[in-house]
Amino acid sequence: MTPIATRNNADTIEVDRERMYATIGESVREPGTIGVVGLGYVGLPTALAIVEAGASVVGIDVSAARLADIRAHRVDLIESDRCRLGRFIDTERLSFSDDVTRLRDADSIIICVPTPVDGHLVPDTTALSAACNSVVGVARPGQTIILTSTSYVGCTRELLVEPLRRRGFIPGSDIFVAFSPERIDPGSPSHLPKRTPRVLGGVTTACTARAERTLAKSAPWVHVVSSPESAELTKLLENTFRAVNIGLANEFATIAGELGVDIMEVIAAAATKPYGFMPFHPGPGVGGHCIPCDPHYLLWQLRANRIPTPITEAAMAAIAARPRAVVLRAQELLAESGRPLASSRILVVGIAYKPGVADVRESPALQIIDELQDHGALVSFTDAMVESVITLAGPLKSEADPARDEWDLVIAHTLHPEVDHSWLSSHSLVLDATYRLSDAVGRHTL
């Protein structure tokens, strides 16, 4: 099928859309209530974007604690989304529940649940399978079901299409199924859903048309591909691309350090080229819900089919090794100053996986802290957005005034915006894993 929603030949796109709508009926034009399953870092911003666009939303989450936090506004959102939550939460346009049967009243259902990996980097589809089973169990004729959770290629057919067929539904005829990967960038006001195009692959042309109308309310445009599988692989390519380039940036940071060159200066210079280069920056590792996890869904699937993926495997191995490189560098710097790692007082500045969020999922800081503690170091942390964290050695609370204490070593891991880090410029020993503290007198990099 020719894509019907690109930014090229707009007249042809509109003709194709109108032909589809004429074929399957005008009722697809304005979906009424939209159900959003999963209200985490993807689902809640998705729900708020849809409400802002004029639709009504019922948000479903199995966690009573998460629902309580949302109702109490104890959620990590950018300011514009926080305002939307406050504006709509007590209106008929936006409601929240743990009762999945409420989805029967929805015209469209969007599934936004996490797809993590376990400690062995094997995909954990527990939440995804449970959510799809619940949606299939309450589905009714005429609904549109859109899966957005990143997973393996073929998951939409396996977890939604085939179970719906077993219930007697015919996708594309009496129920409509599609895959459209989430593109949420937590903490980034410049990457709001309404500014970010969506990729969409429906099971049939009718499925595509229904899903496109649902998603068009909260995206600038929808780029349609020929199948759910193409949309699924699109997401895996996006995040594997990022993983490979972050791994390359880390490698070049090490090279630059050995050659006595400032890697950030080099990246800025390379970025002046108007074609063929995209800047990626080195750091202490990769965290969050995408890059450390998503490529492993592809590797897991291809490994089962004995398809070699040497570039992706090397990139993911390099990313996984980065936090340990921070620990080894910390040990080296302390030894150079005449101190053993054991019993040294070490402060980690920022433990969220990236600036501007309170999310510590897959954060390299957690592995760094655990390994430092395992070597006998006395580790503390400070983070303006994270109050406490559980480590292998027990709970830790954020240091309220870290500049007042004497630390043998400070590791700069995450520098939140609008936080005063000026005190780091005068500290005698700083391991700058962010590569952004160029004025610190005691600064060292990996």
TrEMBL record:
Domain of life: Bacteria
GO MF annotations, alphabetized: NAD binding; oxidoreductase activity, acting on the CH-CH group of donors, NAD or NADP as acceptor; oxidoreductase activity, acting on the CH-OH group of donors, NAD or NADP as acceptor
Keyword Mitochondrion: no
Gene3D superfamilies: NAD(P)-binding Rossmann-like Domain
InterPro entries: 6-PGluconate_DH-like_C_sf, NAD(P)-bd_dom_sf, UDP-Glc/GDP-Man, UDP-Glc/GDP-Man_DH_C, UDP-Glc/GDP-Man_DH_C_sf, UDP-Glc/GDP-Man_DH_dimer, UDP-Glc/GDP-Man_DH_N, UDP_ManNAc/GlcNAc_DH
Coiled coil segments of this chain: none
Domain UDP-glucose/GDP-mannose dehydrogenase C-terminal, first and last residues per copy: 347-439
Biological process (GO), any one: polysaccharide biosynthetic process
Family: Belongs to the UDP-glucose/GDP-mannose dehydrogenase family.
Protein name: Nucleotide sugar dehydrogenase
